[in-house]
Design brief:
The protein is mainly beta. About 5% of the residues lie in helices and about 50% in strands.
Length: about 300
């Protein structure tokens, strides 16, 4: 059976910022709010249980459409692969093992028979050896939750009739499991960028394409590069500056942008780029009704 939804083609970690290892020092509780570790103010490391065992440190990644585990963790838990699929990134592609986890839990939420693929995560684990996997959208998209950078927590909505956080509701669409949010750059009132909300990147990423170039008002810097890292390797990326980006009533200014050449054939499911969730103090994800609230405020 073809696993077309088990591909990850656009995730980038900027390794110019170093990772620090944090081990989970408490079990996963059944509270609706789960505390996470924040690395370099961007990357979220949360404690998860796999088949009731753990906790294990996973990177929480809203830009990944599938969950990944390391072969070491799979071996430790005696999880055997059942197939092989293609893992694609901007640094290349690789055929990797695929399996189903009997269950995976984050705080009060559990998903059974969760699809996972295996990856050594060499670039990430060279800087943070405690990471055992990546928690992707095939888990996260099944729930409503608030991602709160202020108090470093993810709070799941337990009662669907509960009053939602306050703020402007921005519609999102799901493309191959990823959440796409519309944004207007400074260059045009008509042009709309479709950006993936991505907790796994610290920098705004724009995908370039030769056939259909985006008309953006970018200030180029020829001698400035950043290093991007994916599960399969790293690459150097040119950078530029975007004057403004409008998301509903929220206006972001003077944004550094990393430019990535779009992968041929990836036009349909990955949008025009990646928008870091860390740009906002908190985000409410309403996956049931298809909207998000940026800089969400708690209802009184």
């Amino acid at each position: 059976m073809k696993k077309t939804n088990a591909f990850r083609t656009s995730h980038i970690w900027l390794v110019s910022l170093c990772f620090i290892y944090f081990s989970a020092d408490q079990g996963v509780r059944a509270d609706s709010k789960v505390k996470f570790k924040l690395i370099q103010d961007h990357w979220i490391v949360a404690p998860v249980l796999v088949s009731g065992q753990g906790p294990f440190d996973f990177l929480l990644d809203t830009g990944a459409n599938v969950t990944l585990i390391t072969p070491e963790l799979a071996h430790q838990l005696a999880i055997r692969p059942t197939a092989r699929v293609s893992l694609n990134t901007v640094a290349g592609s690789q055929v990797v093992p695929y399996s189903l986890l009997p269950s995976l839990s984050l705080g009060p939420k559990t998903v059974g028979n969760l699809e996972v693929i295996y990856s050594d995560l060499p670039e990430m684990r060279s800087l943070n050896p405690g990471i055992c996997g990546i928690l992707g959208q095939n888990f996260l998209s099944q729930f409503n939750y608030t991602l709160n950078y202020r108090d470093r927590s993810i709070e799941f909505e337990q009662d669907q009739h509960k009053t939602h956080p306050r703020g402007e509701r921005l519609p999102v669409e799901q493309l191959e499991g990823r959440l796409i949010i519309p944004a207007r750059p400074s260059s045009s009132k008509k042009q709309v960028l479709k950006l993936v909300l991505d907790s796994g990147t610290s920098r705004l990423i724009i995908f370039e394409t030769t056939s259909q170039p985006l008309k953006l008002d970018l200030e180029q810097s020829e001698d400035q590069l950043v290093t991007g890292s994916t599960p399969l390797g790293s690459l150097s990326l040119p950078v530029a500056n975007l004057r403004t980006l409008q998301l509903g009533r929220i206006k972001l200014s003077d944004l550094p942008v990393a430019l990535v050449h779009r992968i041929p054939g990836a036009e349909g499911g990955f949008g025009d780029g990646l928008l870091p969730t860390s740009f906002f103090s908190s985000i409410f994800f309403n996956n049931r009704e298809g909207y998000v609230i940026l800089n969400a405020r708690t209802s009184q």
